[in-house]
Amino acid sequence: MPTIVSHVAVPLAVGVGLGRNVISRRLIVAGFIASILPDFDVVAFRLGIAYSDQLGHRGFTHSFLFAVILGVLAAFFASRLNTRAIVAFMFVFVSALSHGLLDMATNGGLGIAFLWPFSDGRYFLPWQFIQVSPLSLSRLLSPAGLAVVKSELLWIWLPAFTLMITLFLFRILVRRPKSS
Ligand SMILES: [Zn+2]
User: Fold this and answer.
1) How far is the CA of 170 from the centre of ligand 1 (A)?
2) pTM of the predicted model, to two decimals?
3) Ligand 1 centroid to 127 CA: how many Å?
4) For residues 123 and 135, what is the distance between their CA atoms, to the nearest angstrom?
5) How far from each other are the two terminal CA atoms of the chain, in whole angstroms?
6) How far is the CA of 77 from the centre of ligand 1 (A)?
7) For residue 40, how far is its CA from the centre of ligand 1 (angstroms)?
8) How far is the CA of 12 from the centre of ligand 1 (A)?
9) Is a pLDDT exceeding 70 seen at residue 180?
10) Are the beta carbons of 46 and 23 closer than 8 angstroms?
């Protein structure tokens, strides 16, 4: 995985870029949660479940279907998220899906079970440009951890920041002047 902090880059960029009128504060928090929730599957290691198992790390919680389920849940609670169902679905779906896609771009570990439950296969993208992050914090604080941080700044935070600025500028440019 990229470090768990970097997974929030996607909902942060899209949410801030689109602005509070489109993405409510509660919805952006739901997006943050959806973007990191898949990695709570590391509890599987403690439960003795194998990495390669569909219940293991990068298993079903990293699938396309899991992102759809989180999106549907968000749509169901849309009024509590101060938004419309379609906006809640799209934002939370994209936030959760981005987690698996970023993991698929890392250069280590097993791939993700993107097509679960239709396939147990583990998948990577054809290009693995993100330095994989160690699962333990102590190893992340080692010199090798610096390479991970550098890689994530370049391949996650820089594109996310660019996306945020682009959405922000687009929003400013298309805003209709108020008639007096
Ligand atoms: Zn992950």
Assistant:
1) 31
2) 0.91
3) 17
4) 19
5) 52
6) 25
7) 8
8) 17
9) no
10) no
CA of 178 to the centre of ligand 1 (A): 44
| DSSP type of residue 123 | B
Q: Which long-range contacts (CB under 8 A, 24 or more apart) does 136-143 make?
A: 140/3
* C-alpha of residue 132 to centroid of ligand 1, in Å: 10
Q: How many CB atoms lie within 10 A of CB 141?
A: 11
pLDDT attached to residue 77: 98
How many whole angstroms from 21 Cα to the centroid of ligand 1? 30
Mean pLDDT over residues 138-153, rounded?
83
Element (H, E) at 136: none
104, two tokens: 């698929």
Residues written for the chain: 180
Tell me how far the alpha carbon of residue 64 lies from the centroid of ligand 1, in angstroms.
Answer: 13
pLDDT tens-digit map of 23-82: 999 999 999 999 999 999 999 999 999 999 999 999 999 999 999 999 999 999 999 999
Phi-psi region at 117: left, alpha or beta (left = phi > 0; alpha = psi -120 to 50): alpha
Structure tokens at 59: 């298993």
Question: Ligand 1 centre from 34 Cα, in Å?
Answer: 11
Domain range summary for the chain, segments of one domain joined by +:
4-169
